[in-house]
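Allow me, if you will, to draw on your knowledge of protein folds for a short while. I have a record of one protein: its chain in single-letter code and its fold written as discrete structure tokens. Could you please explain, in whatever detail you think fit, how the structure tokens follow from the sequence? The record follows directly beneath this note:
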Amino acid sequence: MKRRRMSINPFAVIGVLLAGPAMAQQAGSDFPEGDGKSQVVAICGGCHDINRAKAGYTPEGWHTVMRMMQNFGAPIPPDQVTPITEYLIKSFPEGSRPAAAVIEGPIGVTIKEWPVATPGSRPHDPLAARDGSLWYTGQLANVLGRLDPKTDEIREYLLNPQTGPHGLKEDKDGNIWFTGNFASLIGKLDPKTGKVTEFRMPDPSAKDPHSLVFDHDGILWFTVQQGNKVGRLDPNSGEIKLLTPPTAGARPYGIQVSSKNVVYFVEFGAPKVATIDSKTLAIREFPLPDSAARPRRLAIGPDDTIWYSDFARGYLGHLDPATGQVKEWLSPSGPKSQPYGMVFTKGAVWYSESAPNPNTIVRFDPTTGKFQTWPIPGGGDIVRNMDVNPDGDPVMANSLVNKVGVVEVKVAP
């Protein structure tokens, strides 16, 4: 399909370039010397904090990151791509990562993966549609993608420049709703026509709509992480209401709806799980016992209790909202395993550990209290969110390796 070049904020880049060598030296004063350093400081520092580079990647990872930046319109002259990439590979290699803990068990799985259509698109979230297709947000290619797992055919829908799609959900009519994480909006795609309708945030501080979910009445609820808000959008009227959690800097992140139509979300900036009263719009927070806890995603079991991934501490957690009781289990790959995307399906909690090499798929059986794990082929980096397809199998998007996939589960007799 025909693609348009995407632009970035030129004022950010110009501000760095016009500031001259003094500012450039200050910004990257602790970066190793070498060919490509000045370009990294000037170009990369024009869009974001260049200290992000210190996290490090494998050579393949750096090539992917460079493609992501080009996809999003970073002003990198063609003749500078190679020296910048080589500098980053040499100066910021991947750091140490915990080993993946592989635990055998009674359940068999087959992990299938598909490369998405655009290299370096950073597929962020997956969506398992009712027709069996697998959708994804190509955040840095600015697309929504649809994969037919039966034919391997992928179609991508180009969004408006700098939308930065993040989360996505399907409504009852088959429309795909998504958060425009870079453009401060909620969008709706009609797959039949390709038409995109946008709903802008009414408050400029709600700049980064994040994750979203439909309740049983068709109301769309969403989180705004850095803006520290939770939103309610009525698709019929387009009205958006924004709510602020009681905790400052709570950073609302994952969001789900229970079988009783109760909205729950986790606060990535605080050790709390929270719920919203859909009638009064009051927010109630459930404190977690460890102040260092940072829940990032959640899944709701058939009994309407809450499971959460504690990204910071490497734990799987369980909250009973009726009693406030919390129980936790150390994730198999340890305290630095960074549990992330998760779902509850086929009688168990399924999630991914995003730090081990390779990343893992983890199954936890609430009845037995036992874990079982599988390494993700090709490394898996990084499963930020998961969904469940009509067959009850977990689906995933692996952003750094540019793939989407499904975990086909064979439940033991």
Remarks:
- The chain has two domains: 10-91, 108-410.
- The first strand starts at residue 108 and ends at 115.
- The CA atoms of residues 62 and 89 lie 6 Å apart.
